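Private note to self, pasted from the team thread so I don't lose it. Backbone tokens:
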């Protein structure tokens, strides 16, 4: 719906465009427009409701380079997440369903952006962009690919090999474990990911459960003993056993090297 801009609205956009601003913060307009805090808050809220600017959080708004012609405006996904995380001086990497789609593991296009980050946990919305933010420790961030968006923003995606690991590590969140094993086998067979790279990223970012499952899988795929030994060295002797396929029968053959119950059936 087209909105009729008043004098304050026109001054706001003229100021932002003149200064080439991407964001406006609470207090920025007080002296520029000679208005009160209450007037500024009402102005920003009014434009946000009209879809002409996008609220990132209380007191922080994204503004377009130019006004949309008769319609609503929303930032793209990368601008939205960059602004949100930069505001917290944080780091992030897009992961899960978005990365699965990017690397061709899954053809489903996610309606949300999933991202590991070291600042925010939970759901957020910026304009029309829906975000699922998964807070992790600094040590779990890394092994990324930088991608330039159409708007010139730099996006950070988990790398192909890191995405394969996360499909095993975070299987319960992304519901991926059955498919992840096939993805890993295909990527190794096609040589898009090398066994050496995959073992390295597993050791750096994996946990005991993912190292066990990946070690068992790679041994079955005929990966060299020198690489398997690196994974084996990271494990202590298993006092308990975990199923290769969770959420199904735990009946199967015990693999004592990896502490795995091979419950794939015959």
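Design output:
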């Amino acid at each position: 719906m087209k909105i009729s801009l008043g004098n304050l609205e026109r001054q706001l956009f003229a100021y932002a465009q003149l200064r080439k601003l991407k964001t406006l913060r609470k207090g920025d307009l007080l002296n520029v427009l000679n208005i009160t805090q209450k007037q500024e808050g009402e102005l920003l809220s009014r434009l946000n409701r009209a879809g002409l600017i996008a609220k990132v959080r209380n007191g922080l708004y994204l503004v377009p380079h130019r006004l949309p012609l008769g319609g609503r405006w929303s930032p793209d996904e990368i601008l939205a997440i960059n602004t949100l995380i930069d505001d917290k001086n944080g780091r992030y990497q897009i992961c899960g369903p978005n990365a699965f789609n990017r690397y061709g593991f899954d053809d489903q296009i996610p309606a949300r952006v999933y991202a590991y980050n070291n600042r925010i946990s939970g759901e957020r919305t910026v304009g029309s962009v829906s975000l699922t933010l998964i807070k992790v420790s600094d040590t779990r961030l890394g092994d990324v690919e930088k991608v330039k968006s159409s708007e010139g923003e730099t996006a950070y995606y988990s790398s192909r090999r890191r995405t394969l690991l996360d499909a095993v590590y975070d299987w319960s969140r992304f519901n991926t474990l059955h498919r992840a094993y096939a993805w890993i086998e295909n990527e190794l067979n096609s040589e898009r990911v090398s066994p050496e790279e995959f073992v390295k990223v597993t050791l750096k970012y994996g946990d005991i459960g993912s190292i066990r499952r990946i070690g068992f899988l790679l041994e079955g795929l005929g990966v060299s003993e020198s690489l398997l030994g690196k994974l084996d060295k990271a494990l202590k002797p298993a006092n308990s056993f975990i199923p290769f396929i969770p959420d199904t029968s735990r009946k199967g053959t015990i693999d004592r090297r990896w502490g795995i119950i091979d419950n794939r059936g015959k």
